[in-house]
Design goal:
single chain, disordered N terminus, mainly alpha
Length: 223
Amino acid sequence: MNTILSNLKIQVNEKIYVKDPETSALGKKIIEQSILLIDEIGFDNFTFKKLGEKIGSNESSLYRYFENKHKLLVYLSSWYWSWMEYKLVFATTNITDPKEKLRNAITIVTEKVIDDSSTEHINEAILNKIIIAEFTKTLHTKEVDQENKEGFFLIYKRVINRIVNIVTEVNPSYVYAKSLVSTIVEGSLHQHFLTEHFTNITDCNSSKSTTQFYLHLIENVLR
C-alpha cells in the first residue's frame, strides 16, 4: 500500500490555503516543521513567528501559504483525513463480506498510527498525536458553519459516510448509523487522549486497545 500511496496526491480544499504548500520546498518544510512544533509546544502556544524562527524563514513568507494558524491546523486535519480515507479505501476494496469490511474500516480509524515512510515530509504518527489533541479546535469555532459551507470538512465527513455505508450493508435496519460512526471516529480520538493522560477513566490501555473496544462495541450494537 505504501507504494500506491506514494503515487497519490493528497487532496485538500484549495480554499484552506493561499498557496498550495505541496508545490514548493518551503511549503513542504512549513508543513513538516509545523507538525513537529505543534507537537512540541501545543497549538495554543504555536505562532508563525516561532515557526519562522524554527525553519529560518521570515514570518511573512508563511502568510503567503496560510492566512493564519487556524487555517494551517485545518489544512493538517484535512490532509490527515484524506490520508486516512486512502487507507480506508484500500482496506475495504474487493472485500465481499460486509462484516469483515466493517472490521477493517473500524480498525483503520481507531488503531494507533504508524509513520508512513512514503510521505517523507509528513510524520503521520506525530500528526495523529496532533489530531488527537487538537482536532476539535478546527470545529469548535464561531466560523464553523461558514467553513463547513465552503467544504473545509468535506473529507472528514466523507470518511464517516464511507463507514456509514458499510454499517448499512451489515444491518440495513439500524437507524443510527451516522451517529454510531461519528461517535466511533471522534470517540476513538478521545479514548487515545484518555489513555495518554487520564488512565483512570478509560479501560483502554496497552493490553486492551481502543480498536478492540470499538470492534466489541460495534459487534454488539449491530447484532
